[in-house]
Structures are given as structure tokens and as C-alpha cells.
Amino acid sequence: MAGTDSSQRPTGDAGSGPAVVLVAPQLAENVGAAARAMLNCGLGDLRLVRPRDGWPNLAAYPMASGAGAVLDAARVYASAEEAVADLHFVLATTARRRDMAKSELTAAAAAREIRRREAGGERCGVLFGRERIGLTNDEVVLADAVLTIPLEPSFLSLNLAQAVLLVAYEWLRASAPAPPPARTASGSRPATKGELVGLFEHLEAALDDAGFFRTPEMRPAQVRNLRNVFQRAELTEQEVRTFHGIVTMLVGRRKDQL
Asked: Which of 19, 6, 7, 16 is closest to 48 using CA atoms?
């Protein structure tokens, strides 16, 4: 469907709406098509995690069809953890059932929740996985909830740009801001994903030293379960600092007893 009003100024920029995080995209052309879908809906914050064919990549621009500014501003990260580190609320797109307790939101419900959190000053993002295999469990566990798109159950396959467009369009439709979420009595802001990952790594290192992970084969699943628990708790920045202090105190006391 063609039709662009060149007199209108594009609304997408790096601070507009949720970040779109493409994890290990395989084809630059798909990145370009995703950028086009983003700008169609006024989004501009594109983040790429280890794109297979490198970045920048000129092959992306023809498929962007005028959304070159989104590609020019795209940022590249070494891991999904780094890509979402500054965000407070993250959704993971997946069509597969996962062996972890995660809330599931449709694209429409997710858009309303993102708008609600944005109205409260939170930065949000959506993780999109590889074209062939999607997101890994370790990447999904970074998210606060799973975003699903109700489609024909026997054929759930979407290409990357289609998925981005559906999610971005629902965000665009949910344009009326809702009241901001209630703050804690202390006024502490929600923790960012980077702050949470720092707590996870601190706790996991302490558990390693204490011999909690008794079988190396089970450690990845146990780590995911622990991280999932803390993700569901929606910790504030003050609570994260409190847990850091608890871990530090317990580790110090254990060393004194040895």
C-alpha cells in the first residue's frame, strides 16, 4: 500500500515509544523492513543484537523504503542483556510455550501496558528473536512478560517485519495515555534491567561460592528460575540496593565463619 505525505514530519525518534530490539537478525533486508514498519507507527528506537551480517549494512536500506533515519540511528549490542539494560519494562515475543512462569499479553494488551508505564516515566522495549528459531530461554527470562499474537494455531509463523508491524501498530492505536502507575511510598523508581542483571550476577556468584548449584547441568535452569522470580517482583531501585546489601552481608558472615 503506497502513500506518503512528504509534508508531514516523521514522528519516530530514539525517545519515542518502546525500543524495538532485534536479537541476532539473520538478514539485513529484514532489519530494513522492520525499520519501515517502525516508522509507519512512529517508532524510532531500533536496537540490534549481534546482527549476523554485521552493521551498518547497505542491504537494509532498500527494504527500509524511506526509513533510513531509523537505520542510521540503530544501536548495536553484544547481548540482549546489554540492549535492554536501560529499560524498566521488557516484553519478549514468542509463539512457543516456555517452561517458566511468565504472564502472557496479547499485542493489544501489551500496547496498553506499555502506554501506562510510559505515562509513569518508564522506558519500555520489546524483544524480537531470530528469524529461524526466535529467542532463547535465557533471553526470554529478561522479560517481564511474554507477548503473543493470536493467529491460526496451525500456522503461527510471521516474518520479522510482520511481527514488528503488528506490535508497533497496536502501540500506535493505544494512543490515549492512562494514569501513571502508583509510586512506592519512598518514591524509588522502578529498577532498570541493567540494575536487575547486576543483582542477579551478584546473587549467583554468592550461590556459586556457597555450593548451591550442585550439578552443573542443572545450573542454567536454576538460574533462569531465580531470575524469573525477581523479574515478577518488579523491584524498585531501592529494593535492588537492599538485596545487594543482604547478599554482601550473608557472604561476609559466611566467610567469617570459615
From this structure: 19
What are the 10-residue block averages of pLDDT along the chain, 258 residues in total?
51 70 97 98 97 96 97 98 98 80 92 93 96 92 92 83 96 74 68 95 92 91 92 92 92 67
**Are residues 35 and 119 located together in one domain of the fold?**
yes
**For the chain, how many structural domains are there in total?**
2
Whether residues 114 and 232 share a domain: the answer is no
What pLDDT was estimated at residue 101?
78
Whole-angstrom Cα distance, residue 149 to residue 166? 8
One domain, residues 125 and 91: yes
Q: Among candidates 165, 178, 190, 137, which has minimal Cα distance to 42?
A: 165
* Helix axes of 160-173 and 107-119: crossing angle, nearest 10 degrees: 50
**What is the DSSP secondary structure assignment for residue 67, as one 8-state letter?**
-
Measure Cα distances from 79 to 62, 76, 83, 165 in Å.
27, 9, 6, 23
Q: 64 and 35 in contact (C-beta within 8 Å)?
A: yes
Within a domain: 185: no
User: What pTM was estimated for this model as a whole?
Assistant: 0.86
Residue 189 DSSP class: P
Check residue 251 and give its pLDDT: 80
- Beta strand 46-49 with 19-23 is parallel
